[in-house]
Amino acid sequence: MKKKIFITFSILFCAPFLWAQKIEIKPYLQDAEPTSIKIMWQTDFGEESIVYWGTKKNKLKNKVSGTSFDINFTDKRVHEVAITGLTRFTTYFYKVQTGKAVSEVYQFKTPPFAGGSKKINLVAMSDMQNDWQHPTKFQEIVEEGVLPYFKKNFEGDISDNLAMVVIPGDLVVTGSTFNQWEEHFFKQSEKLFSQVPVYPVPGNHEQNSDYFFKYFSLPKNGSPEYAEHWWFKDYANTRIIGLDSNDGYRDIKQQLTWLKELLAKTAQNDSIDFVFAQLHHPHKSELWIPGEEDFSGKVVELLENFTKESNKPSLHFFGHTHGYSRGQSKEHKHLWVNVASAGGAIDNWGEFEGRDYDEFTVTQDEYGFVLVTIDPDKENPSFTLKRISRGNNIEFRNNELRDSITVFKKTIQPKTPVLVSFSKEEQPIYKVVLKANSFTSDKKDAFHAGANWQVSTTEDFAKPTYDSWKQHENWYYRENRQKNDDLTDEVLDRKLQNDTTYYVRVRYRDQFLNWSNWSAIKTFKTIK
Question: What is the dihedral of CA 394, 399, 400, 404, to 10 degrees?
């Protein structure tokens, strides 16, 4: 009896070593550089971490080993292998091995050097945490959205055309729940992240979990004591900055100090034309006001100041609100882009408290992802942002283009508008009609996309009585509130003071975020 018990115990104790390992999370790419990349995967057990790689799919001549570590105090292991000595902007093939478990062959492409002349694409999407009503929505976004979109619109493999994916938070429902990472995030995205590097920042649902920081090997160039909470990565002529807007980290002054210093250095770096930042929480949200955070407003202010001082356009990606929004700063070439939802339940119009903010041109309650194409053209670098929609629970959309904007580094100003003289020198104290000429520009494809009207009792406009900024479109609550407005006139919708001289000026903006100069000033005097 004792002998049988001993044998049974021995078999159970040694069981994991009697059969082949299983790859539970397929390989995914991390921290790509022009000459190196990291590959990670998870097995049910086994220390061995080997990657075979080469420039030909059927001849993986090179072999490199890495490390493994426990992920949840069981036999499960996460493996990390760094491949070095690569050539910039080159396609490579690879497979991974742990014991008897060997993956299929995948491929990736190294990025160009900063300042390179190659066009690059990146995808931004967020808030793919599992929705019990649509548990495979994230997989749909990947396998019916991103992958077929690139196959249809670009030649070659996805790795040839997509440089990276950025995710501003909320990858899983509960970051401290181990199995959600495998089931809800990695398995649903394995066909994409095995070929394209992914760079997330934590959202509130990650709960600052160790799993987030174990599963991802992010750049370690932020503050050393807060490794991987904030960082930056350069791709061609663009610097991507990751930030942590979560409770416990947004109050750490060091993060904003680090960002300010980094932006100052970036302003002096001639190889960088654009800065893209990503953080989870919005500064302003048209669909869900309770989700707004003051910290994000401080980040926006730093980015706006950077753009003003350096003449380098910028944007910030965010999530938290489950829908798409695209706006722009009034005085700067800076975009505000909510890149949700890639799986989480949509914040439908009217479901929460919202507000029609001046900054936002488009807000839509939908699933989808954002594509950014960066063109480092030597004459005038630019980036083009597109929203690719998968619709919502009411109306399905099959990778439909719903919004687009292009921003150039070099400013080509529209022609200065001309105010139309008032037919009478004296005007009523209400419903004064202001009028200017039509929009014109030396840039052939430019059109009238914005107008800023100001009325003041002083000629320096230090404290305008009236300051109206309108866009050529304003999609809010499923309607365009700017429909049929050509932006060349303005009706003062407030009562003015009697027997007072007012000064008027206007400026026009094109769709590339270029403002004209202010018009020559006109005056009128009010009477009852």
Answer: 120
